[in-house]
Every structure is written in C-alpha cells, then in structure tokens.
Design brief:
The protein is of the alpha/beta class. The chain contains 24 helices and 18 strands.
Length: 657
C-alpha cells in the first residue's frame, strides 16, 4: 500500500484541523481501508472557551460523515476532560455513553461524535487514525489470527481481543494500553475489527497506518494469500427477469416492504457464488462489526427465501435468549444473496442501501478468500454478531428513523425519459423514493442522472427484440417493476386526411400505439409480481376527448391507446394492477416547442406568446412538472382505489368541459 501524501496538496489544508481533514480524506480514498462511513479519525486541540480559559478538546469524526469527503464541520469538538473521566467509570451503558458524548460537545450544532470517541481520547498521539483495513481483517479472522498479528507487529502495537465497539471496548483498550504499551508502541490492533495508529503529526499517523497495513499485506503475500486468482468472465446470462421478480416478491414479503434486489453480474461475485464450498465459507458471519448492520449476519445461498427466514428466526430466538434482554426481531430478509446462476445479488430498502451492501460484500469476498488461503476463514461467534446487530444504539437509530419515502423500494419504468414530460416524471418519481429506469432512443438517457437509484437505457421501443432486452437489464439492475409510465410518443406535422400519407399514418401508429401495446404485454407479468400491486399511468392527450382537425393520425393513435388501457384495466384488475390516463394539453416546456414554433403558433391565432400559453379556462400555464406530479400521485395511495380514470391536466378546456 502506497502513501498518498503530497506536500503541495497538504499545504492547501492549513492548521491542525486542516491537516486532520487532509489525511482523513487520504484514508477515505482507499476502499480497502474504509468503506461508506466506516473508520474514524481525530485530533486533539487546545482552545479558549467562552470564559477565556484554555481547554483541551478532541475533534473526532461525527456520524453521517464519510472520511473521503469530510470537511472541518464533520469533526465534533468534545471536551477531553469529560471523555477521560468517562473512561474511568466502572460501567456505562451505550445509551448513557451516547448521551454523554452529545453532552460534552462545545458546539451544540456539531454532529453526534463517533462511538469510538473515548478510545481516541485515551490514546496519546495528537492525531489518531482508525481503519477497518481488509488486509488486517483477513489475518485476524483466521484460526491462530492473534499469533499471526503478534508475529507481524510485535511490540509496535497493543493487541485488544474482540469486544463490541462502545464503552466496554474503550475501557478495555485503556486498561491493556496502560499495561502493555512500550517505547515502540504506535498503534492498536483490535481483533476482528481494525487498526489504530497515532502520532504527533497528521502525516505521521497516516504514514504509520500505511506502513502497518503494508506489513499485513506483505505477510499475506509471503503466505501466498495476497494475490487472488482472476475470476472467469461471466458468460451472457439467459433471460431470468420473471424469476428475479418472483424472488424479489418473496424477499419483499420477508422485509415487510418492497425491496430493491440488484443482480451484480460481477466476475468475482459469480466465481464466489459458484464455489462448491460457498455455503460453508459464506455462512460464518460478516468480516467486521461495522459490516453487520448493512449486510445482516450471513448471506442467503440459493433462492430459498423461506429457509433463510426460518434460519434467521431460529438464530434470533437462540441469541436473544442468551442476551437476556427483551428485543424485537428485525425483518428476516437477507441483504446479500449468493446464487450459482445469478451470482452476487444485493438487497436494500432503497437502491442506495443495496449499492452499499454491494461494495461491502465485494470486499468481504476478498477478505474471506485471503483468509481461506491463509489457513481458514473464521468469523466472530454468532452471539457477538448478534450483539452488534441488536445493539441498543442501533435499535434507537431504527426507532428514530423517519417514515420511508412513499415509493421506497419500488421500481418505475418511464418511456421517452430523456426530455420533456418523461424527464419530469423521472424527477417526480425519484423525489418520492422510487428507483427509476428511463428508456429513450436518445443516447443522452444514459447520462440523465448519476446516482444509484437511476438507470438509463437506450432503447427503440418499436423494436420487438430491443424491449425484452431492456426489461431484462432493468430487472437485473433493481429486481422488478412496480410503476410504469407510458409517455413516449410523436406528434407529426399537421395534415388533413385527404393529404395524409400512409407512411406517416403507419409511423405514428407504430410509435404511439404498437410500442405501447408491446410494452403493456411484456410488462404485465412483471407488474403482476409487484409487492404492492402494479400501477400504470398513460400520458394521453386532450385530443382523445377533443380531437383537432389536421391531427388525424395523432388523435387516432392516442384514442386507440386510451381504449387499450381501458381494456387492460378490466383484464388486470384481478392481478392488482391499476391503470389510469392523464390528458395534458398545451405543455410548452418540451423539446417539441422551440421559441420560434411557439411564436409562429401564437401569431397564427393572433395572440401574444404569453396569452397563447395560458389560453385555457383557468388562464394558467401547464408545465411538464404539473403533468409529472399528477402521474406520480396517480401511482400513490391517493389513487389506490382508482383504475381506468382519465384526468385532464390542461388548465380547463371548453371543448372538453
Ligand atoms: Zn471501528
């Protein structure tokens, strides 16, 4: 492992707190050291308090901050004296500790200090760095792990046996440090957890971390446990979208809410899931306590969700009895699934949660493989893992969590999503917590949003073969389909029937009618598997109830889709799928309407552009966002008992009224 320290970069971070920010970010840049909010750092400073007295403070990483992107505001200033006195108490529950940590802040607006704050306070260096390094965990989580790390680090670190993070760990570390530290001591090894280093400069603590991790890496290399075999590339999978959606339905039932199920398709995930010993090596437990909450105790192997549920219930019963506390069981749904055919799949209440599990489990695979090569992977006993999973602090966090977003865990598909009403629908659905797949012929769709809950696919909806491939990709990305917004369509130049060319007529029918028929037919089996029932919204047109001269092909195509949806509502009600239509009119903020076209149409009617835009009963302008918000609401609880409705969003049209 190489030090990323750079003098020019470092000079841009003045002061001790600045240096603290800089090397915290250096640690955060390496995912094999810390992942997604894992790890923490601190600096001890002396400042004047409100009475003008000098006071020692510990600036320690606050919760909710990631080392990679942390800023000065991400460090919480705790009174050192208070932390050191806490470390001497014979006992303190974790809830009491959380209360004390909050209470000893000199800035009431600072984030909650790390639960490892007391441990940082008792260590001597001005700068303290803590990571959950993969290389060290690969070594500690083996039989004989302690002897191995003693051989690697000898008197340079103090060894702390595994204890759950929190007050007990801080106390034990203080006690063992006082007994064992010598002149060469520069860090702590926390068995099955991670590594601490400390020094009087930010650079010193950081480079010690790199040095000690390099020793661990070299040890693995010397024992032929560092280089992992290159996994075979994944061959093209057979279509499995209905199986995946059915699996997601079962997992959602275990979770008690719709789940995102992301099929990763990575070579390392496939190779791991296909190992003959996968059940044995994956079932022991997560790599560090830090990973427990997000990935659950163990992954599910294969697709038998019922078996996983009952195993989880048994584990809960056995461990809860030993814990001797009254606890409410968490949902018995897996967070990681290993299947010989699908490979690594990750599960979350949201796409972001699933993405975090993905990163964590890819690291877990490397750790397990290295530990296996070193002589045998050995995770913590189930009871220790249970204690973290059912930690008072975690239970309190769950109780404090707000209501999830209305479409959390649900998956929406929007056609014609790169611009106009489709693009606005994507935004309205993302805002309500859905994971959204956008389809469009425009390649810009792939870059519409860069976030884990959006996936853009270039797709020609009129192609009988392109659509199934796009649905396959969408389902592998998020696990199924709950909400479908049929928006894509074309508005051809006006022509009276007498002059309307057959080719144009057919083109309009192909895009506006045939493609929607195909979409509905192909999506039906997926919508049927939606945990909360499928919902479809069709973006129709004012032309359905009030057609215009010169728009025969367009009006006929939209009316035909409208009729198609009404029939679908009759046929699919028994499958808990509801379909509704929206009829917008005069929506000008779309790619169709350039300022020039708008000006010429306004002139045609003898109106100013402003008067033309608001030429309706309410004299109001209708925007893409207005249409999209209604479409999203129609998928939500407000319309739960409504199917086959047609709602205008046109500012009131006297021909429709
Ligand atoms: Zn830790």
């Amino acid at each position: 492992m190489k030090s990323l320290w750079n003098e020019t970069e470092a000079a841009q971070y003045p002061g001790d707190l600045g240096q603290r920010v800089y090397t915290s970010r250096l640690l955060g840049r390496d995912a094999s050291l810390v992942l997604h909010g894992g790890g923490n750092t601190s600096v001890k400073l002396r400042e004047k308090n409100i009475f003008g007295e000098e006071e020692d403070l510990l600036y320690v990483k606050g919760s909710g901050w990631d080392l990679e992107t942390i800023e000065a505001a991400g460090f919480s200033p705790c009174r050192m004296n208070h932390l050191l006195r806490l470390a001497k108490l014979p006992e303190l529950t974790d809830l009491q500790m959380a209360n004390e940590l909050k209470g000893c802040l000199t800035n009431s607006g600072a984030p909650m200090p790390s639960v490892e704050a007391i441990l940082h306070a008792i260590l001597p260096g001005k700068f303290v760095d803590h990571t959950h390094t993969d290389a060290l965990i690969s070594i500690t989580n083996t039989a004989g792990g302690l002897q191995r790390v003693q051989e690697i680090f000898s008197d340079r670190v103090v060894f702390i046996p595994y204890v759950m993070p929190g007050f007990k760990l801080a106390r034990l570390a203080a006690e063992l440090y006082a007994k064992q530290a010598g002149p060469r001591t520069v860090g702590l090894v926390l068995m099955n957890h991670g590594l601490f280093t400390f020094a009087d400069t930010a650079k010193g603590a950081y480079e010690l971390m790199i040095e000690l991790v390099t020793l661990a890496e070299n040890y693995l290399a010397k024992h032929r446990a560092w280089e992992l075999a290159t996994p075979a590339p994944v061959s093209a999978p057979r279509p499995a979208r209905l199986e995946i959606a059915a699996l997601r339905k079962e997992i959602s039932s275990a979770l008690g809410a719709p789940a995102i199920v992301a099929v990763q398709g990575t070579a390392s995930g496939h190779a791991f899931a296909a190992r003959p010993d996968v059940a044995q090596i994956s079932q022991q437990g997560p790599a560090t306590p830090d990973h427990v909450i997000r990935t659950k105790r163990i992954p599910q192997v294969g697709r038998d969700v019922a078996a996983f549920r009952s195993a989880y219930e048994q584990y809960f019963k056995a461990c809860a009895a030993t814990a001797g506390r009254k606890l409410v069981m968490l949902d018995p749904a897996p967070r990681v699934l290993l299947d010989p055919e699908l490979g690594l799949c990750t599960i979350g209440r949201t796409a972001k949660e699933a993405a975090i599990s993905t990163d964590i489990y890819h690291h877990t695979i490397d750790i397990i493989l290295r530990a296996t090569a070193l002589g045998g992977w050995k995770a913590l006993p189930a009871q220790d893992i249970f204690d973290v999973e059912y930690w008072d602090l975690e239970q309190a966090k769950l109780r404090a969590a707000g209501k999830p977003a209305v479409f959390a865990g649900e998956i929406a598909l929007v056609t014609g999503a790169a611009s106009g009403i489709g693009k606005a629908c994507v935004e309205s659905l993302l805002k309500r917590g859905a994971a959204v797949v956008g389809l469009d012929v425009n390649p810009a769709i792939t870059k519409l949003h860069k976030r884990p809950d959006f996936h853009g696919i270039v797709c020609d909806l009129t192609s009988e073969s392109a659509l199934p491939a796009a649905l396959e990709e969408a389902v592998r990305k998020f696990g199924g389909l709950d909400l479908l917004i049929l928006n894509a369509g074309i508005f051809p130049p006006g022509a009276p029937i007498a002059d309307l060319k057959s080719a144009l007529w057919h083109k309009v029918m192909t895009v506006n009618l045939d493609a929607n028929f195909l979409l509905l037919r192909e999506c039906h089996p997926l919508l049927k598997l939606a945990p909360n029932g499928g919902r479809v919204v069709v973006i129709g047109s004012k032309n359905v109830p009030a057609p215009g001269p010169g728009a025969a092909a367009y009006s006929a195509s939209k009316a035909a889709v409208n009729q198609l949806v009404r029939v679908a509502a009759l046929e699919w009600g028994k499958d808990r799928i509801r379909l509704n239509s929206i009829h917008p009119n005069m929506v000008f903020d779309t790619a169709l309407w350039t300022p020039e076209i708008l000006a010429s149409r306004a002139q045609h009617y003898g109106l100013t552009v402003e008067a033309y835009k608001t030429n309706n009963v309410l004299k109001t302008e209708v925007t893409s966002r207005d249409v999209a918000e209604l479409a999203a609401e129609m998928c939500g609880p407000l319309f739960a008992k409504t199917t086959a409705a047609q709602v205008p969003v046109d500012g009131g049209n006297d021909r429709v009224i």
